[in-house]
Amino acid sequence: MANINNSLTSPARGPLAVRVAAHSAAAPNGIDVEQGNGRGQTTIDQEDLKKEPQGRLQYFRSGAWFRSAITLAILYLLALTFLISLYRRLPPMDDLVARAAAAGDAQAATTLRLAIPHSIEELRAVRSTLETYRQEYSSQVASLLITAYLFLQTFMIPGPLGINILAGSLYPFWTAMLFTAVVSTLGASLNYWLVRCLLKDAVTTLFPSRITAFQAEMRRHNTHLLNYMLFIRVTPVLPHWFVNLASPIVGVPFHIFLMATAIGHQPMNFITVQAGAALSSINHVSDLYSLRNVAFLMAVGVLALIPVALKRRVKKGAKGLPRRQTLLNLLPIINQDKINGSIGVQLNGSESTA
Predict the structure, then answer these.
(1) Which residues 6+ apart lie within 8 Å of 307 measured at CB?
(2) pLDDT, tens digit, for every residue of 292-335?
(3) Cα 101 versus chain centre, distance
């Protein structure tokens, strides 16, 4: 745990340093807690926030980003080239259309398509196309889906959710679950290392207040970091792309990130695979985030915090302290306004006004 503490408390590198104020020796985990109003509040350095535009401009003028940008562009083009090569190994779409027309299936001939879907209707068309290909080229279709998923998630391009649904509609349930479990974990891991090796300084400079707020939450929960990561992986509290970006910057160890991702993605994978199996009854992607599904994700996420709450309760009971710790105090809820640029950090149900 000492290594975790050191990694989470070390300031991020870059022209505009990310730091959490810590002036009180009594503050837990090195976080500044204002005692005047009786609420735990994380103080974010106002000077850093005021200097964000200047810091970004200075960073771009310095040219420090150039090497990382060139390397990122090369990796992107190589991955895209490989993906296109897999696509070109499949027979041309014109052949499928001709076969469908020859078989008298005029509707299939007009609906076949293979592209990134932007709606449920397009998703159904892509599914029909892939199913047609899969009858003769099953291994090529599987390779294309895996590569497309990893490409999209590594470079933070929208689309992995649709591939999960496609997997659920093309394969048996447990095969689809295994597919989504492997590719979602591997894709997030590739994104983690991409940021850690190439984009750490750039992301820190571009989004200092957001990274600072996330760092404060990580330091607050560093004694039960895996439980915290499981919670935010399972629940829709934070976007997964932001967790992938911020985790290597604030020093989340890779083994914790990997375990939390491998386990925490499964509830949402379950929902999307089930949606794929019932693709004909889905009208919009937002149906995946129905009240029932969100409640399911939140309930599973809270389960990750129960061991921490019980451990603290037992520890306080052994010391003869009042057992005032509740599960609500452990919920690592981060205000979405902060992710959109606000400086408010919601701790224990109260929002800071710093």
Answers:
(1) 227
(2) 888 888 888 888 778 777 776 666 555 554 555 455 555 554 44
(3) 43
Confidence of residue 352 (pLDDT cuts 50, 70, 90): very low
Q: What is the pLDDT of residues 112-162, one digit of tens each?
A: 667 777 778 888 888 888 888 888 889 999 999 999 999 999 999 988 998
Tell me the whole-structure pTM to 2 decimals: 0.71
Q: 2 or 217: which carries more pLDDT confidence?
A: 217
Residue 18 CA, chain-centre distance (Å), reads 21
**Domain assignment of residue 259, given as a range:** 2-90+137-351
Interior angle at CA 302, CA 301 and CA 308, nearest 5 = 115
The SS3 assignment for 78 reads helix
Torsion sign across C-alpha atoms 16, 17, 23, 29: positive
236 Cβ neighbours under 8 A, 6+ residues apart: 289, 294, 297
- The answer to the question of residue 95 being in a domain is no
- Give the total number of structural domains in the chain: 1
Phi and psi dihedrals of 25, rounded to 5? -70, -20
pLDDT of residue 122: 84
- The pLDDT, as a whole number, for residue 273 is 93
List Cα–Cα distances, 247 to 168, 258, 331, in angstroms. 29, 11, 18
33 DSSP β-pair partners: 42
- Secondary structure (3-state) at 33: strand
Question: Is the distance from CB of 124 to CB of 281 less than 8 angstroms?
Answer: no
The verdict on residue 211 lying in a domain is yes
Residue with tokens 């997030």: 188
In a domain, 101, yes or no: no
CB 1 within 8 A of CB 222: yes
Q: Could you give the C-alpha distances from 229 to 87, 241, 280, in angstroms and in order? A: 36, 14, 34
Examine residue 64 and state whether it is found in any structural domain, yes or no.
yes
